Amino acid sequence: MPPGRVPLALPRAMRLVRFQPPGGAEPRLGLEEEEGGGLVDLSGAEPSLPRSMRAFLETGEHGLARVPRALASGQHRLPRAGARLLAPISDPEKVICVGLNYRDHCLEQDVKVPKEPLIFSKFPSAIVGPFDDIVHPAESSEVDWEVELAAVIGKMGRHIQESAALEHVVGFTVANDVSARDWQMRRNGRQWLLGKTFDTFCPLGPAIVTKDSVTGWGGMGREGEPRLAPTSSVGSPRCPPW
């Protein structure tokens, strides 16, 4: 999900969030001190910083260099329970998705592993926060969901070598790929777009975890309440790069 076109080199491991403080005030930019922990109000500590995540990331090193100063002040902290966490980025330039992106999923669907990535997209208008309701559209009787790892892209590029791919990644967040399967598979000429991009069909967050925070790529995964297997990880057999 490309938020902008400015190269980024993050100074430290961070969990970047957007939140709405108590009382329904304007959304603010923040840091989650640890997973499930308290928040640092970056917008309060550094009022000149942009309030949107995309605009903040587009400031590049200039904006990011001010984050340690906000942390060092020891002020503008609030408990997570008192804030509403929003989608960490709500206005990306693109939301690019890859279908059938690991072999186990292909086996689950009883389809061949694709020779090239199966690319589809979602409109940014489908994005909602991690704890917002997903609206079941009246037009569909087959709403489904899949937990996905989302990479937030911060450096523009084309014809990128696989070995250099992570140089273009700011960090990662959690995405819920919600689908209206009847619209995806049997309507609209079997083009996926409409079945994938109803309003609220792309919950994101709560945090963008910068890539400096991640170690052991092969074991990175998710745990929760799956329907088929207890865990999935990036170490699972993937489909070929393109």
From TrEMBL:
- Recorded GO MF terms: catalytic activity; metal ion binding
One GO biological process term is: small molecule metabolic process
Gene3D superfamilies linked: Fumarylacetoacetase-like, C-terminal domain (3.90.850.10)
The record's section on InterPro entries has: FAH, Fumarylacetoacetase-like_C, Fumarylacetoacetase_C_sf
- In this chain, the stretch annotated as Disordered covers 219-242
Q: Which UniProt keywords apply?
A: Metal-binding
Domain Fumarylacetoacetase-like C-terminal per the UniProt entry, residue ranges: 94-218
Family classification: Belongs to the FAH family.
The protein's name in its UniProt record: Fumarylacetoacetate hydrolase domain containing 2A
Originating organism = Anas zonorhyncha (Eastern spot-billed duck)
